[in-house]
Design goal:
The complex is a heterodimer. Chain A is α+β, with helices and mostly antiparallel strands. Chain A contains 19 helices and eleven strands. The longest helix of chain B is centred in the last third of the chain and has 18 residues, at about 175-190.
């Protein structure tokens, strides 16, 4: 009849009290279990979505900081460019898997037709067409293909020699090629047309134009732009992004620089006022946008910390994962709510179970005094009470493990749907870092699951909370004086 | 001498004044004898018993068990291995049966207990007058006299030589009182235990081998 057996016998013989304790632990356990389930689910969403958003990072002007500058700040202030040397220095950091720096410009064409997708019938041509984005690359295997934005389906990627020499070769989309009956090895012509704009009439006048003849060395297909979102409210945005990508022409950076320089110089010839204003100014046509792909999205913070000190004033680091905050509104608010519920539930459990156990112990004061009068050590008396509470707690927590998880799934889904229907419809994208991940994807990725990590965390937090709530009343036993109780 | 108290002092501090419950009390007890300590309510007899049973400690003085200071033995250990205590209100655990109550000290003591503790407990209860079907009942289903018998069996369960009882018959009728006293006499005279009973009953005192009178904290022999 040692203290362990006494503990078990007490549970079964005092059924009423054991059931009360079980009910209290079960109810509070549901709160804790639900909060942990939601925490785990939101944590998984963050990991999954950030994984999907990728580890792409760029360096660009901090437009918020620019807006905040006063007129006095602007005086004598000159925005510096990000030079190739700095891009290379950043690209050498250990967090970077590979990187590229790119220039882009828009060209038109009389020789080929641009791809317009389902919007073909609605496509109305106003003024000069600039449908083709000439996207310069320095990284020969093409970073967009490495990052699964696009996939090479025919031909080849660039050679380093072609990139370095600025050879007139291009990779275009399969859809653009099909529309114009182009194949690998064919050439096509784009037009670098220079127009002037008449402020009074609002008309544009063609000044000059030169042909840009490029050889098709490869064809790509879009990988990430979704085509399945018929009822998606962001459909229009995806169509726009898709059309722009299908009309992208990958070429070596040198070609973009050359065409930009031509365009600028011809424009200056046509605009005397501007030419006069720019006289004596040093001209540079290299405005690169760098793109760094990190080893893992989790490296974003460390990368940013190391890069910020290297950047010129008013530049900042923008990561694909930054977009998580803007699309994960409902999940984030659920995560915050569950965090507060968890804290409140743990505090409530400590207080309520502590009080219940204390009341039960006061009721059993004489029994405890008897054990002490028989020479039982206080530690074993404490042990007996702990066994009684923890066995009941184990049953209560096990029951609430399933019910709390189930309830959390039901309640959080309903709440997030309601939250999603009233807000968070925006899709954020950046010039170099685009994504098709939306709030709907975040909600789809949210799933309250009964997995081993949840079970472990719940048992850990649940049992520790009960242990803590029992520890306080146990001080009562340590202070008991058997003589005062029994005589 | 199995138990000896030397110059015990116990008092309450009442402001500046000390109110003595026991003052320089010395007394000794032998094995095989049935002792009574007689006194009015508030005379300090329960306090003396609590000091002898190590439920409390004196402000000064010593209690020796087999010539060893019980403070040195350790109060908890002394209660666990060397003394059986019987209370006026029985102090049994109501959720357990009679036999389970007897088994509790057997699991606590460090004294040698036979492997078949359950049989020993049933035999002990039977010897005290509790038959098996009553031994399996929860103690709160037993009469006062039966509960006190269970309390005596519990005190004997660890095979101790010293039995201390605080007004053990205070809640019992005369017939039951005599039966309990007979058990104590039997334990002392036939089993060599030292039985010390605190009581306010002259009748019980008259049946003991030696009686002491406690008056205003001072102990004297009662003839």
């Amino acid at each position: 009849m040692n203290f362990i057996k006494r503990g078990f016998l007490s549970i079964t013989r005092k059924k009423g009290k054991s059931l009360i304790l079980l009910a209290v632990i079960f109810i509070l356990g549901n709160l804790i279990s639900g909060a942990i389930s939601i925490q785990q689910a939101t944590g998984n969403v963050e990991t999954n979505i950030k994984e999907r958003l990728g580890a792409a990072t760029t360096v660009e002007l901090d437009y918020e900081a620019l807006d905040a500058l006063s007129e006095a700040d602007w005086e004598g202030f000159e925005i510096q460019d990000i030079g190739v040397d700095l891009i290379k220095q950043i690209g050498e950091l250990s967090y970077v898997k590979y990187y590229d720096y790119s220039m882009s410009t828009y060209l038109g064409s009389e020789a080929i037709d641009s791809y317009q997708g389902d919007m073909e019938e609605d496509y109305i041509h106003h003024g000069p067409s600039m449908d083709y984005m000439l996207k310069g690359i320095n990284y020969a295997p093409v970073l967009d293909f490495e990052e699964q934005k696009g996939k090479l389906v025919d031909g080849r990627v660039f050679t380093q020699e072609e990139v370095d020499n600025g050879t007139s070769v291009a990779i275009i989309s399969k859809k653009l090629a099909e529309k114009n009956n182009l194949h690998v090895g064919d050439t096509f012509t784009l037009a670098n047309a220079v127009y002037t704009y008449d402020n009074e009439t609002g008309e544009e006048e063609l000044v000059t134009s030169r042909d840009v003849v490029l050889e098709v060395i490869g064809l790509f297909e879009s990988q990430s732009i979704r085509e399945d979102a018929e009822v998606d409210p962001s459909r229009g945005m995806f169509d726009f992004m898709d059309i722009e990508y299908q009309n992208t022409v990958y070429v070596p950076n040198e070609i973009v620089i050359s065409e930009t320089e031509y365009h600028w110089q011809e424009y200056m010839k046509a605009d005397e006022e501007l030419a006069e204003m720019m006289e004596g100014e040093e001209q540079s046509f290299e405005y690169y946008t760098p793109l760094f792909v990190l080893n893992s999205p989790e490296d974003s913070d460390a990368f940013e910390e190391e890069v910020i000190p290297l950047l010129p004033e008013l530049y900042t680091v923008v990561s694909a994962t930054d977009q998580y905050d803007s699309i994960a509104g409902p999940v984030e608010s659920m995560a915050n709510l569950s965090k507060y519920v968890l804290i409140a539930a743990v505090i409530a459990t400590v207080l309520i179970i502590g009080l219940v156990v204390l009341l039960f112990l006061r009721d059993r004061k004489r029994e405890l005094g008897i054990y002490l009068s028989l020479g039982e050590s206080r530690s074993r008396v404490v042990g007996q009470i702990l066994i009684e509470v923890m066995v009941v707690a184990l049953i209560g927590i096990t029951l609430s493990l399933f019910s709390g998880n189930f309830l959390a799934g039901q309640i959080s889904n309903t709440m997030m749907e309601a939250d999603h229907n009233t807000s968070y419809e925006e899709v954020m994208y950046y010039s170099q870092i685009q994504t098709d991940v939306t709030t709907a994807d975040v909600l789809d990725s949210y799933e309250v699951k009964l997995n081993s990590s949840y079970i472990l965390v719940f048992y850990g937090i649940g049992l520790l909370t009960i242990l803590l709530s029992t520890a306080i009343p146990l001080i009562y036993i340590v202070r008991l004086n058997p003589k005062k109780i029994l005589m | 001498m199995i138990l000896e108290a030397k110059d015990l002092n116990y008092y309450y501090q009442d402001g500046e004044e000390r109110r003595y419950i026991l003052k320089d009390t010395s007394v000794s007890f032998e094995k095989g004898k049935f002792y009574t300590i007689l006194g009015q309510s508030g005379s300090g007899k329960t306090t003396l018993l609590s000091l002898l049973s190590a439920l409390d400690s004196p402000h000064s003085g010593t209690v020796l068990f087999n010539e060893e200071d019980i403070k040195k033995i350790g109060y908890e250990k002394f209660r666990r291995n060397h003394v059986g205590i019987i209370f006026q209100s029985y102090n049994l655990i109501p959720t357990f049966t009679a036999v389970e109550n007897v088994l509790i000290p057997m699991s606590i003591t460090e004294n040698e207990i036979p492997d078949d503790a359950m049989t020993v407990a049933y035999n002990l209860l039977d010897y005290i007058g509790i038959v098996k079907n009553k031994a399996d009942r929860p103690v709160n289903k037993l009469s006062g006299g039966e509960q006190q018998r269970v309390a005596i069996a519990r005190a004997l369960a660890t095979n101790v030589e010293l039995i201390l009882a605080d007004e053990p018959t205070g809640n019992l009728d005369e017939e039951m009182e005599q039966e309990i006293i007979n058990i104590f006499k039997k334990l002392a005279h036939e089993h060599g235990k030292c039985v010390i009973v605190v009581t306010h009953s002259n009748e019980i005192a008259l049946q003991s081998d030696q009686a002491f009178l406690l008056k205003k904290g001072v102990l004297s022999s009662h003839e």
